[in-house]
DNA sequence: ACATGCGGGCAGC
DNA sequence: GCTGCCCGCATGT
């Protein structure tokens, strides 16, 4: 929304601060949950938004006592990297999620790089005047207000889902190892259980800047047992990317543009960069600082972020062309895939709340309850580039009217029928998971 | 085991 | 007073 379009009430919404005595209550549109809030962002979530209720972030944020029980403050822990700066196969960098618990974090730093066995080191966040970026949460009426201060000066760590999945795999691997050791009656491993250099111990994240050459041979153990299936939720956040990349009703889709060119194209079109998050959420109009420029864009790329997935122009809202199910916090891998298929949304300045009043929170609830345990994809690998389904897939704009009730778990087959897809195609979607 | 939230306490500005 | 940070404790997953 352009400044001219911001009326008085919008300005009021624009100017709030988390420390204000009174926060705006005339909020017309709440934001969809932001997994990677950065810079001096402010969001207003519905109090029904479960992720907001849990004060989640894909950054590793720890609770900080600010002696104010009304405002929850969290500070960023940074990212754990390999001190040798090693690269795994396909150029993946080691960006581990710092443990939130202090003791667990100390323990974590005594461990070794899952890739090269070198020592790990914690890169602290210094993005807020030399101090960690801080996030503030405040519940007020029907809203949850979020404010971020500082700009992360380090790569994105694993998401919580990824870190949990990795721990689960380590646990499985550890149990498998101990079982086989019992059988062999010998101990030969120097590394700690689960810390071998096997693929299953590798972090799930890799650097954005080093490309995303996905291992075609990597069917991996990810889908081979129950704990790992949980990461399907994370895998399916691919959908978020393909919402963007596959929305066929969006004109002028530059599927082959790189990030910088896409940025330039966005600049030319309306001095804004589009993000999938924008597509996914009806935003509070015009409450975000317009801080993005090409330098920031390049910085984001250099920091391993996908600028397309950041809030580059969050004040921009689109008709709801999104697949409303995010399933989980996004994965860096999905972001990387998103980079592969960047598609520019239409330069349509519009607001959707009149048609779909604040669907965000409820929809998000749906997506966190999806149960895919019964859907075990095959381990065959479908390259996104090769998969016409992924390139042409377009969710139905009116789909959000057809949601099942909150209480029901989502029936994927039914969902796919809504999407005009059959089981075969739904499995193709799930086959994206081995990409990781 | 770990994440998360709360609150006491201390130190620096 | 504000802020950052450490710590212990409780609770939930």
TrEMBL record:
Transmembrane segments: none annotated. One of its GO terms (biological process) is gliogenesis. SUPFAM superfamilies: GCM domain. One of its GO terms (cellular component) is nucleus. Its main location: nucleus. Residues 147-198 are annotated as: Disordered. It holds the Pfam family GCM. PROSITE patterns: GCM. This is Chorion-specific transcription factor GCMa. It comes from Orycteropus afer afer. The lineage of its organism: Eukaryota, Metazoa, Chordata, Craniata, Vertebrata.
